[in-house]
Amino acid sequence: MKYLALRRAILQFGADGGPGIVHGVTDPNFTTLIIQSSNFDDRVLLDGARCQASDLVILPPDCHFTFVRSGHVEWVAWSLPREESIATKILPAVTSQASPKTAKHLVRLSEPIASGLIEASRQALRSISDSALADRPVVAWETEFALMDELAYVWDNRVSEALLPNKYTVASERIVLEALEFVRKNPESIIHIKDIVKATKVEYRTLLRAFERYLGCSPKHYLKLRQLNLVYHEIRHMGPAARLVDILAAHGVTEFGRFAGRYRWLFGELPSEAQRRFGALRPDNSP
User: Fold this and answer.
1) Domain HTH araC/xylS-type spans what residues (predicted)?
2) Among 7, 25, 75, 167, which has the minimal tally of Cβ within 10 Å of its Cβ?
């Protein structure tokens, strides 16, 4: 991820590979805007709504969000101080919703407008990188001023906008957020569907409908993704004495062959291959 601090705003470029779910809360001091820089429609779900490649997501300060991606996605994000004029211009409609902690904008842009915004952001990165160190404070100020103008132009020329959560997903939101919070508080535990049912105090059928509507997947699929990612991070940081079979067992893997196939589908290599690759990168293996 590339991170660029301007005068007060922050510009970020990032990429996420493979299917995954990202749940978090925005900084209480910043309005956050995100757009895909990869041209993939329907690859990202935001709170149950499918995002097109030219959709701009606007997240108010201290806002809960849940992104679900079905494949590789590249993105650009802007963090604007909440008192910034463009931030105050776009916030009122969002924060007047009944659920200000989760309310957000999904703004549809035309393809040329979206492309222009992405290119302006890339140009900002080039301007800062190419400038002399002594000139960077002035260049950062000028670059931020130009970006704010570009964002104001984008906002004034939006095609349409929608507020999230919408009437179709708001009922599912509480259930899913409670489930994700329960999982977050038990990072080392092997979690089963019955545990989530108990934590959310709903029947499984209601839980299934909420997950499919809000996350685009079943609770079972979500828990498998969680298991795969936990194993990935454990392998990445395993010590020289650790055994792969112990890591898999600790995360509830019982069918090693089937799990290895899913792991390769998600990360592009078998767990054993990842173990060798990350092991070779450890400092203790340096010649």
Assistant:
1) 177-277
2) 167
